[in-house]
Amino acid sequence: MELIAAIERQLAAIGAQGLTRRRRTAETSCAPHQTVDGRAMLAFCANDYLGLAAHPAIIAALQEGAALYGAGSGASHLVSGHGRAHAQFEEHVAAFMAPHIPDVRALYLCTGYMANLAVLSALGADQNAMIFSEALNHASLIDGARLARAGVSVYAHGDVAMLEGQLAASTASTNIVVTDSVFSMDGDLAPLPGLLALCERYGAWLVVDDAHGFGVLGENGRGALEHFNLSSPHLVYVGTLGKAAGVGGAFIAAHASVIELLVQRARPYIYTTAAPPALAHALLTSLDIIGGTEGKARRRHLAQLIHHLDTALSLKRWQRPASTTPIQPIIIGGNDEAMQAAASLHAQGLWVPAIRPPTVPANTARLRVTLSASHTQADVAQLAAAINTLEGNVP
Questions:
Q1: What pTM does this model have?
Q2: Does 394 score more than 90 pLDDT?
Q3: What local confidence, expressed as pLDDT, does residue 52 receive?
Q4: Can you tell me the distance from the alpha carbon of 381 to that of 364, in angstroms, rounded to the nearest whole number?
């Protein structure tokens, strides 16, 4: 059948470039030590930065939520699916983010991907709007900009001066600057203070996707806004809840009028079944941990692990960009060598993914190491020794 043959040619072309993606099946809970495809593995690939995905208190809260509210919501939020747990979580997370956004309100969505689609498609619904997108933004932000009716202009990675030129030249009725806070493949931070200053000067929105910062950055885990001590009504903040928060979904925090606009206009929110309320119930416990003494202790331990990896690695050919976040890339270059490195580590019981184009630029294929507060220093030492040996053995 020619239709199938055409698909198979596409798959062969992907394989010829060393870009075939493969899934592995985890048989135990998300944690550093897992059983994967029948093998015991030490994992450095999850975004469970605070080690909350298997936290006993959160598991108990999820079980309690299921007993209270059942397994599913049954409908979209605007029909009958908006439960008490959803409302409580939105109230609590809005209060948590209140120091950074005046008159804040929050909205809970099923995933971070949907949250980004919702924000950009709603704020950018006017053809006279313009979205200014950071060059290394996550795919969900790129797709959100495509879904919007607004024009799109891309500015170079971290280039505040370039962005200012674009904003100064804009004749759009609504200007929207959008950026990741922590870039998922490099672990570096966006220059948010400079970006916010520009948005306030030119009357633009600043949409911040803090997927990899919420729960991790800031004294109280409020993310990049707390890290940089930012507060402004120009901010529209997206926090992901399936990474450091350990559960699932995402929230948008912004001025109450912005959130009401999303309720009325954001198609990814309006036209989908609400997430199970048990998840929102569990997230109340997760939020308490993030903002409490245990969350602070976990962030301190995570910082120690990041420092330990930094001192233990002794790379000569491969490169490790400076990163103070749990995302610690080891840039190798070619796709084949990156895949061979990941395979070698896997053979040693170390689960570290190889990331290749188009997720990252050509010739920057890498090992993406992610650290969790559930790792130990011995875990990190084992990984560093294996990488050092592996690099030394590659011709």
A1: 0.95
A2: no
A3: 98
A4: 25
